[in-house]
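We were asked to recover a plausible sequence for a given structure. The inputs and outputs are reproduced exactly as logged, with field labels preserved.

PROBLEM: sequence recovery
POSITIONS: 594
GIVEN STRUCTURE:
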């Protein structure tokens, strides 16, 4: 019996060993070959160089400054290698005195791990001119690697800052969304840099290399170049952009210069800031000063600033009036006040405008005309018509997170505040006040719509990968509106050219233009005040916002120039000179032919 058990034991053991040998040598062969290959073959991703951004005349707007990053070999924090680590850091400090040993050590320990076999970044960027004198010395050191690392640079600094945007170091959330950012390290955070980030950053390349047991490179087996150096050409003209920035010095607000098909030639949000501080870093004090400013320099007012449109909305509302329940012959007898619901709605002109039709109402900005017309037309038709024209929606510009504004309505108020709409709110809406909010770009878009009869999609891109960006627009007018549009254009012409026009006396443009001024109150005027204070008599932050939106030349519309000055008071007074200078510059630069 014992003999049988011993024989059974030996046979079982032999079978088990045979099965294991078969499993290891035959069945798992491919698995171990793969592991072996991984121990001798390494793949290195190659970071792509971020593409450049240029203006419409190929002037560089966002470029890459040549520099390098420094890396140290892994596994130098153990007892045996800590001396080597300290020695390498001291050498770097001696050769490059501006470096901090404490920072380099912190960066090293952050990524150091038993499982990490890749060299570790300890200095993210050193300019080319600083590394060049010591390059040959450092390159001979086995534990140090010098890797090309371009750094984003904005030659125009603060000019067009909000349109261009900036790049800064990618955070964990960015990297989780796109693992390529873990290799590149930087990502577009705002403006064009963010909107076109995936295009500008390109795609990584790869190196297949053979390494020895010490993880040292023996040979390069394959190389796939990174898809990089993309070029993004914008519609912006940086000469004009620099010019308008000087015109706006000391003011707060925004400017749009756009051709009537949607190409933005120049645009600005003021005050602005130097884009390079976000790449290189800034002090806490500088950030606090900028972020706490009441003028909100970090806000792109062009698409993120929401303001009451004031009288700038009257051309669009006027078109709705004369093509809906009213006619172009309808008028009012403006006596400067309209009693309604226990309060009085005043016209800006204390003595009133007398008999007023649509052309005079826009030319002289008669509030009473729009008050009374709104009560006939009603909120539902006003709101629906303005939304059809494009308000209360994104313009579609190629900038991130555009705001849509508010075209107030009965349904909107009930949904937001759970309250009923009042007739007084309809009257307020008719002069662009109350809960009515727009962005400056929306007003520029609406001006192009009046000039051409089409609603264009604004854009900053001109060419992407050498392919021209296509203008797009919407046709929103019905036949009656098409027939009556010349009446609105005539009224806007008189705003800028008739002696009684609200802008005429403030203009010196060499181009014949049409437009509309607007004064949007930021503080309500109490009912018991019979005589309004003049805007310049008010404290700065209680003054109205000043709008002046225009198109020109009048007979052959080519460009829209829209200026909004925060707390600027009267639109014509605050912006007339700026608008005139811009048209004269367009003439000088050859954009408008006389």
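RECOVERED SEQUENCE:
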């Amino acid at each position: 019996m014992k003999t049988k058990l011993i024989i059974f034991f030996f046979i079982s053991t032999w079978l088990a060993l045979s099965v294991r040998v078969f499993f290891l040598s035959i069945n798992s062969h491919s698995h171990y070959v793969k592991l072996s290959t991984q121990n001798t073959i390494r793949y290195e991703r190659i970071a792509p160089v971020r593409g450049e951004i240029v203006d419409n005349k190929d002037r560089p707007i966002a470029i890459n400054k040549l520099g390098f990053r420094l890396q140290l070999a892994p596994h130098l924090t153990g007892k045996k290698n800590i001396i080597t680590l300290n020695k390498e850091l001291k050498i770097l400090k001696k050769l490059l005195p501006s470096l901090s040993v404490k920072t380099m050590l912190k960066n090293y320990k952050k990524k150091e791990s038993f499982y990490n076999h890749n060299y570790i970044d300890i200095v993210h960027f050193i300019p080319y001119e600083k590394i060049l004198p010591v390059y040959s010395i450092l390159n001979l050191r086995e534990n140090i690697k010098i890797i090309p690392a371009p750094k984003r640079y904005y030659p125009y600094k603060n000019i067009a800052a909000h349109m261009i945007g900036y790049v800064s170091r990618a955070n964990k959330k960015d990297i989780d969304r796109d693992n390529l950012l873990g290799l590149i390290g930087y990502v577009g955070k705002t403006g064009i840099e963010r909107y076109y980030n995936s295009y500008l950053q390109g795609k990584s390349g790869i190196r297949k290399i053979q390494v020895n047991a010490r993880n040292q490179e023996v040979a390069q087996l394959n190389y796939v170049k990174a898809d990089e150096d993309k070029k993004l050409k914008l519609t912006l003209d940086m000469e004009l952009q620099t010019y308008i920035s000087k015109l706006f010095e000391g003011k707060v607000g925004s400017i749009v210069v756009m051709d009537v098909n949607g190409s933005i030639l120049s645009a600005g949000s003021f005050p602005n800031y130097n884009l390079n501080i976000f790449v290189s870093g800034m002090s806490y004090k500088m950030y606090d000063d900028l972020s706490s400013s009441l003028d909100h320099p970090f806000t792109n007012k062009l698409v993120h600033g929401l303001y009451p449109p004031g009288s700038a909305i009257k051309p669009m509302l006027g078109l709705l009036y004369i093509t809906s329940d009213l006619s172009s012959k309808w008028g009012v007898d403006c006596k400067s006040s309209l009693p309604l619901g226990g309060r009085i709605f005043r016209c800006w002109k204390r003595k009133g405008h007398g008999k007023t039709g649509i052309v005079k109402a826009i030319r002289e900005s008669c509030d009473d005309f729009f008050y009374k017309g709104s009560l006939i037309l009603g909120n539902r038709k006003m709101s629906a018509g303005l939304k059809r024209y494009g308000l209360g929606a994104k313009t579609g510009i190629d900038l991130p997170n555009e705001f849509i504004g508010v075209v107030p309505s009965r349904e909107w108020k009930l949904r937001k505040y759970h309250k009923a709409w009042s007739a007084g709110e309809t009257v307020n809406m008719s002069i662009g006040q109350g809960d009515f909010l727009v962005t400056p770009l929306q007003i520029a878009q609406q001006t192009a719509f009046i000039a051409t009869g089409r609603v264009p999609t604004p854009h900053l891109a001109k060419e992407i990968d050498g392919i021209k960006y296509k203008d797009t627009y919407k046709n929103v007018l019905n036949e009656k509106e098409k027939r009556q549009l010349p009446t609105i254009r005539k009224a806007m012409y008189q705003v800028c050219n008739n002696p009684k026009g609200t802008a005429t006396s403030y203009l010196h443009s060499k181009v014949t233009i049409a437009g509309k001024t607007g004064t949007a109150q930021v503080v309500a005027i109490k009912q018991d005040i019979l005589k309004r204070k003049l805007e310049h008599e008010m404290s700065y932050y209680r003054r109205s916002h000043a709008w002046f939106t225009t198109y020109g030349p009048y007979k052959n519309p080519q460009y829209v120039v829209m200026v909004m000055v925060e707390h600027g008071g009267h639109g014509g007074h605050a912006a007339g000179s700026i608008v005139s200078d811009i048209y004269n510059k367009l003439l000088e630069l050859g954009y408008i032919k006389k």
